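Human: I hope this is not a bother. Would you mind checking the protein record under this note? Thank you for your patience.
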Amino acid sequence: MSDRRGPVLAVRDQVARGERTAEAVTREALAAVTRCEPALHAFTAVATEAALSQAAAIDRRRAAGEPLGPLAGVPIAVKDNLCTRGIPTTAASAILRGFVPPYDATAVARLVAADAIIVGKTNCDEFAMGSSTENSALGPTANPWAVTRTPGGSSGGSAAAVAARAVPASLGSDTGGSIRQPAAFCGVVGLKPTYGRVSRYGLLAFASSLDQIGPFAITADDAAAVLAAIEGADTFDATSVDAPPSTPAETGVRGLRIGVPRAFIAGVDAAVSTAFDGALAAWRELGATIVDVDLPHGSLAIPVYYLIATAEASSNLARYDGVRYGFRAGAAAPESLRGMYERTRDEGFGPEVKRRIMLGTYVLSAGYYDAYYLKAQQVRAKLRDAYAGVLAQVDVIATPTTPTAAFPLGEKASDPLQMYLADIFTVSANLVGVPAISLPCGFSPDGLPIGCQLTGRMWEEATLVRAGAAYQSATDWHLQAPSLA
């Protein structure tokens, strides 16, 4: 049986008791980032001076007997699509090269208020559009378990940083699986909260009805501790909600009903299937009941997602025009305003972002709106009803997080459709708005991590954390670290 307490809770307790200083912990994390970074390229910026200044302030307050926050001294990395005051925020796009926000995203501000230490920004697919972190204008991130493999995306840098033990936890964003898929590929925990639990203020929007901010960590309990610090209503985000606490009040899974949509998950890689079955067996041994369920319309989630998400991206990214902030294309001679717009967006956006903007503009255009966007929203409503029906019968739905383990860098780069299909098990939670968690549950024959996903009812992250913590108390998959760690 393994110790459920992960590095987030361990560091917090050690700093609170005076066993370690926040400065020593921070210097250790910064050294780990330096050690791993040449091989991984997980970071776009490292905030050395700011982090050490935060740590010193925490140590002074502790020495003075002042109260500390619930994450005091815990180094955390933040995905580069979350605004950070004084630290560059580029969304891994050339169009935001050199942009330094004058404010923190609400989630970041709440981390700072909890006395967490922001050590830097992590690499991602440009504007969070991708599943491999290869669409970054700053270059790809490598998987710590095998540097020739993808860490997943779009939050690949955040997942790789935690997997490599450079930081105890990190923040990512999840629009269609961008926390859970890289968590699975990198062998860490990734938690996508219910839509509205965490404020999106300061998150550079991709698809506003789908985006949600959440944590990466080594353990489910650590992820819950980070989520508890950032959740809650925010006057700057009208979609945010004061919901029941996400931290579980009880432990164990005895009596928990876990639904398995066998038909939906048929055809996954053999190693993934074996690891998934092993996870189900572990929960059964712990007292949970495994129930076969039917998940209608699940196969339609990918086309629905890539119509709705691209339509919203087309609208959200219209603001990047070279006028107000970020990159503006230079001109040898005066040109029209429209010409400047066109050149700026052509040079500033990468191929995948352009592809999604064009697709989204097309599905919103006159004559196609009803046939594509409106129809996709109607199917989305059907998916929401289907999940509500299944989750009325069971407490959580279990699936593999991904159909395969991490694929080689470059393998799917020239085939967007195959890249999109890698998200088959993750996009539905975003379309429906429910929470989901990915837990490490095994390894492929060539030593690559495999993840198991649990999806729950709205506002019931506590159930997911409880099931994840129970599983991790009985298994050691999450304790194994790559050689880069």
